[in-house]
Amino acid sequence: MEWQCECGECQFSAEQQERLNQFTRVELLNLIYELACNNPRANSILKNKWLTTPPDILSRVKEEYEERTREQLDFWDEARISSWLNDLYYAILVPLKNVIPVLPHQSEELILFFISDWHRLYEEIIPAGDDDSWHGYLVDFWLKAICKSTNGDINNITTKIDNINKNTHMSITLTSIIASIHKLPKGTIKDGLIKRYDM
């Protein structure tokens, strides 16, 4: 089996590519182990994308969120808050990208938990900053999850959107839903939702 880079950024030379393809299974396992031990990002990708089951990812994501949002931030600088929110995005939402296709209902429930916690997060934890970015990301991921959990059935998707839009505790506005609809990939789901909501 020949190894190929999926990200397009590896830029191995032909000789390096050939050498990589000649490694034995044991050599590759040692290489993976060494990379994971010496590179935190590689370690995180390996754990979250390849070695952790989707149900475990959901549990870890919730635990990580609760840990990170337990106490008020001790800084007011908007650049640091923006950086903190960026880290929160990568720690909480990025792992869900691989889980949503496998466990859409459970992902939807977890994202709704994050959305319902949005007010607490911005009233008690984050002293200042852009509150729309985190909320917008949550709505984006929630919409992806409901599209998957309903198997793309427009009627079921619109029912979920309408129900959540009526729930004042969730703080999802039609404007944020429409913005998230426009970020969906092209296709019949996006077209149907635009026709239904984008007046």
Topology:
Elements: H1 14-22, H2 25-38, H3 40-51, H4 54-68, H5 78-93, H6 96-99, H7 104-116, H8 118-125, H9 131-149, H10 154-166, H11 174-182, H12 188-197
Helix pairs in contact: 2-3, 4-5, 4-7, 7-9, 9-11, 11-12
Word description of this protein:
The protein is built from 12 helices and no strands. The chain has helices spanning 14-22, 25-38, 40-51, 54-68, 78-93, 96-99, 104-116, 118-125, 131-149, 154-166, 174-182, 188-197. Helix 2 packs across helix 3, helix 4 packs parallel to helix 7 and helix 11 (174-182) packs antiparallel against helix 12 (188-197). It starts with 13 loop residues before the first helix and ends with a helix.
Question: What labels describe this entry?
Answer:
globular, mainly alpha, 199 residues, single chain, 12 helices, disordered N terminus
Number of discrete helical segments: 12
State the end-to-end distance. Answer: 51 Å
The oligomeric status of these chains comes to single chain
- Gross morphology is globular
- Major sheet, described briefly? none
Chain-averaged pLDDT: 85
| β-strand number | 0
Name the helicity range: over 70%
Strand content: under 5%
H/E element order: HHHHHHHHHHHH
Please identify the structural class as seen in this structure. Answer: mainly alpha
Low-confidence stretches: 1-8
Q: What's the gyration radius in Å? A: 20 Å
